[in-house]
Amino acid sequence: MFLKARPLEIEALKPIVILNRDDADELDVRPLDRVELVVNNKKVTAIVNVAEVFILKGEIGLSESVHEDLRVRMGEKVKVRPAEPPESIIFIKNKLSGNVLKSKEIEDIVADVAGQKLSDIEVTAFVTGLYMHGMAMNEIAALSHAMAEAGKSLRFKTKEIFDKHSIGGIPGDKTSLLLVPVIAAAGLTIPKTSSRAITAPAGTADRMECLCPVDLTLEEIKGVVNKTNGCLVWGGAVELAPADDMFIQVEYPLSIDPLLLPSVMSKKKAVNVKYLVIDIPTGRGVKVKTTQEAEDLANKFIDLGKKLKIKVDCVSTFADQPIGYGVGPALEAREALSTIEDGKGPKDLIDKVTCLSSVLFDFKKINNPKDKISHILKSGKADKKLREIIAAQGGDPKIKPEDIPVGKKSIKVKSNKSGRVLWINNHFITRMARVAGAPKNKGAGILLHKKLADKVKRGDILFEIYAESGYKLKKALDIFEKKNVVGVGKKYSIVLAEIPEEEKRKKYFILER
Amino acid sequence: MFLKARPLEIEALKPIVILNRDDADELDVRPLDRVELVVNNKKVTAIVNVAEVFILKGEIGLSESVHEDLRVRMGEKVKVRPAEPPESIIFIKNKLSGNVLKSKEIEDIVADVAGQKLSDIEVTAFVTGLYMHGMAMNEIAALSHAMAEAGKSLRFKTKEIFDKHSIGGIPGDKTSLLLVPVIAAAGLTIPKTSSRAITAPAGTADRMECLCPVDLTLEEIKGVVNKTNGCLVWGGAVELAPADDMFIQVEYPLSIDPLLLPSVMSKKKAVNVKYLVIDIPTGRGVKVKTTQEAEDLANKFIDLGKKLKIKVDCVSTFADQPIGYGVGPALEAREALSTIEDGKGPKDLIDKVTCLSSVLFDFKKINNPKDKISHILKSGKADKKLREIIAAQGGDPKIKPEDIPVGKKSIKVKSNKSGRVLWINNHFITRMARVAGAPKNKGAGILLHKKLADKVKRGDILFEIYAESGYKLKKALDIFEKKNVVGVGKKYSIVLAEIPEEEKRKKYFILER
User: pLDDT, tens digit, for every residue of A85-136?
Assistant: First the structure.
């Protein structure tokens, strides 16, 4: 059948065409079937959508990607015929049925996901299949390989590549901004790619962006790392694992995360990491609730590492409150910068940097790692290295903490009780920081004044909220007024919570990784 | 945030809005999050999509349904703020995790599906959850109720409503065109709503449409049934179970059908059926392969019937070849019409009509049901009743078989062997009929000349293909030339099939119900 091309302003990356109902029936295709389009010796397979009115009989609407691939003019005739669906759909269905997939089948699925050949429905079926049936370790390894293969890769002069990863979930965690300079200053190579926040107040890329550009090209990253031993860049700019972005689009609305392991490890594989320390924040308000769960997850990461030839060690870290005091890109960048100047700052932050760095040192059997790390931090070597990296990435190496702008509007929130801080609710801290504008408004966030077990007198400041507008500040404050964000008291109550009969379980979902 | 309305030509039934990336970040919403729109005292909750270029900062693209609900002009300011996702998403996630859902939760999900409040990803998660975890009988019953409640309903003078349903899969099955007049002629009420073909060469609605209109309104259906005791109409026109259409949109591309039971029974509930016979075609090429499977499915239908107060009986029928000789809407309508004239026609068709009708007679404890049915067929009473129904639905009651147009192009396919017909492959008969143009081209299809166990001489006609164009005829013939559509031989071979090492399992999926 020949149909007249009608390019549409549909920004979908997927190759979508829209047929009139009548033509679709004539071609015997239904929504989400495939058609092959041929014009000017170019051939494209596209996913069918059907319209009743908007597309006339005899026309075919083309999404931007189809239009660009075919380079047709409005009204030009396109030959259209039914095409077979990708074979990967059969493998997806096999997974739905509980089968263990072969490596080749997983490669096919991932290539089709990354290549935008599958509809949302088909990708969703795969993700829910993984979620419900779980994966054998061989499947996880195949998925990690395939996800890395489907994207670009980074190779450096040395093959001794170190890396650190946190599975996330804890607000204010600026560890990487200190750890990368420490490791690089020790002469080890650590090309850290990281993500922007999805559900958190800040991702490492958002924090680092307060100090210098983070959206570097592959070539630029190589240059920075070859010069300084390290980098702190946004992985999303270099498409290391494009299939993962597609999976996240499905996982986010469903609040499920079955691809955590392959997602993390595929990106490590793409930059050829050899030694990896994984931080597993553990506590009530994060993904991993107990040390037993942390151990199980750690064992999976270690096993997967063996299959991928990456030496992995994991650390379960205390996660019942934010790390340090600042939460939000600018507040965190300020805190990281002032801490790295002389190695003095929040004890939990310095502990975390020291502990995770020492695991990386252990891989190289470096003696007295903690002393060395302490020296690197206190002597100014780490500070110097961070500024080298900032300069290499195109920032101002002389930046001072107070140069980083924070929200124009702020409010100090005071305690109406005396006692000690008994608990800090990470979920609500995160919600407040996001409602205040983080991570989009870099200066928005929360600056804690008190942390767990700190003495508090009635009228003492518990924290400050920063925002770009009074409206957002007010909305963040509303959360404080409605929720138990920070608990102050003389002693713990035996009652943890009163649970009403039909409590709606709101979703507090953490999709950082 | 206030954004300028930009109505888009997006025909989605779902309330979709498209935000510029920047505004989405500012609102802290991601694709598939929800926003609330307020303008002119009207309020709509919509599903977020994000564009980089096509929608400018400060604009909001509105799909047709949102535009119609809000009645805004191009450029008018709309107040936009983040909204909570529907609670039903939590229940869907619970199903993904393997939980048994409560009736109230299922009602919420179905209402949101029918109300277009869920994205494709969310509906897919529900359908795959049902597929993978199965359903408890209480869940199936709740789903049937909820699907019926979400749509319109039909009530008649009498509460003694009879119905027949086939779970489908067998080409050429024109049983309902004879059974409905037989039952109605016996004085019982049988308001048959049926579907158009999804994956088959013809649905009952497609066949009947060769005789008279089938897209009647609820009021028109009542009129027909009150006058004639029966009808044969398209259920899709009256929205008896709108959620089912949404589910089918997901099931079709994935070739899965977890909603068979609630889908069938919700539609029966919507027309207040009291006595129901279900035909379960059983054989290699259909959904149900063995009598054991048929028995299991039958027991589920019977149990579900008890919960819904519908008396159900099931019959497992032979399905290793088409019913009668015609396959395709017009060829089947011709065959039904000529058979009902005097009760003479293909033995398997008459057997099936007689057997299924007698089950309905048994519900009323009518003596000698088979004799009575035979009399109704042979005496012309059934013919008269069918013509009454045709007239009441707006057709010509004097229509003769040869008045129904069949494909202008046809070809006779001959046997190159002598022997007996050993097997007929339903899948390939279906494929040939569809490639020839059925069901869209009503006159397209296959007219068998030989059926199972018939004697064949070399050069005898096996079947004819009908189509509207030589091109389609040729394509159907191609299937015959490449595939083993009809097996002719002296005796069965001990070898059923040779299976090549990496055979691709093509999908031959039957989604009729």
Answer: 899 999 999 999 999 999 999 999 999 999 999 999 999 999 999 999 999 9
Contacts of B52 in chain A (CB under 8 A): 11
Q: How confident is the model at residue B349 (pLDDT cuts 50, 70, 90)?
A: very high
Long-range contacts: A498-503, Cβ < 8 Å, 24+? none
Instruction: Please tell me the distance in Å from A26's CA to the nearest CA on chain B.
Output: 6
- Closest listed residue to residue B469, CA positions, set B404, B407, B406: B407
B69 is annotated as an active-site residue: no
Q: Check whether B510 has a pLDDT greater than 80.
A: no
The CA distance from A386 to A377, in Å, is 11
> What is the per-residue DSSP string for A235-250?
GGGGTS-HHHHHHHHH
The pLDDT value given to residue B236 = 86
ipTM of model: 0.87
Which residues in chain B are contacts of A256 at CB distance < 8 A?
Answer: 93, 96
B62 membership: H or E segment, kind and range = strand B59-62
DSSP conformation class of B189: B
The sign of the torsion formed by the CA atoms of B147, B150, B154, B160 equals positive
A11 in Cβ contact with B52 (< 8 Å): yes
- E-strand ranges in A28-106 read 34-39, 42-51, 59-62, 77-83
- What pLDDT was estimated at residue A40? 85
List domains and CATH numbers for chain A.
Answer: 2-83 (2.40.40.20), 88-134 (1.20.970.10), 162-236+267-401 (3.40.1030.10), 406-489 (3.90.1170.30)
Whole-number CA gyration radius for chain B:
25
The amino acid sitting at B110 is: V
First-to-last C-alpha distance (Å) of chain B: 47
pLDDT, tens digit (0-9, with 9 covering 90-100), for B118-150:
999 999 999 999 999 999 999 999 999 999 999
Rounded to an integer, what distance in angstroms lies between the CA atom of residue B209 and that of residue B212? 5
Instruction: Give the β-pairing of A230-234 and A190-194.
Output: parallel
Q: What is the C-alpha to C-alpha distance for residues A193 and A185, in angstroms, rounded to an integer? A: 18
Contact criterion met (CB below 8 Å) for B302 and B313: yes
| DSSP tag of A321 | S
Question: What's the distance, CA A244 to chain centroid?
Answer: 10
Which residues are bridge partners to B51 per DSSP? B20
> Which residue in the set A250, A437, A504 is minimally distant from B121, CB to CB?
A250
Our measurement of the distance from residue B474's CA atom to the centroid of its chain's CA atoms, rounded to an integer in Å, reads: 28
CA-based nearest distance A306→chain B, Å: 30
Q: Do A9 and A69 form a contact (C-beta atoms < 8 A)?
A: no
Measured CA distances, A140 to A99, A101, A296, B444 (Å): 14, 10, 15, 49
Q: Round to whole Å and give the CA distance between A441 and A409.
A: 12
Confidence (pLDDT) at A52: 86
Q: How far is CA A368 from the centre of its chain?
A: 33
CB spacing of B11 vs A54 below 8 angstroms: yes
Measured between beta carbons, the chain B residues lying within 8 angstroms of A54 are: 9-11
Q: For residue range B451-468, list pLDDT tens digits in order.
A: 999 999 999 999 999 999
Instruction: Tell me the pLDDT band of B205, cut-offs 50, 70 and 90.
Output: very high
What element of type H or E holds A329? helix A329-342
pLDDT for A165-219, tens place per residue?
999 889 999 999 999 999 999 999 999 999 899 889 999 999 999 999 999 999 9
Choose, from A108, A173, A244, A257, the residue flagged as catalytic.
A257
Cβ-based burial of B159 (10 A; exposed 0-12, middle 13-18, buried ≥19): exposed
Beta bridge partners of A412: A464
pLDDT at B234 over 60: yes
pLDDT in tens, B418-450: 999 999 999 999 999 999 999 999 999 999 999
Please state the pTM of the whole predicted model: 0.90
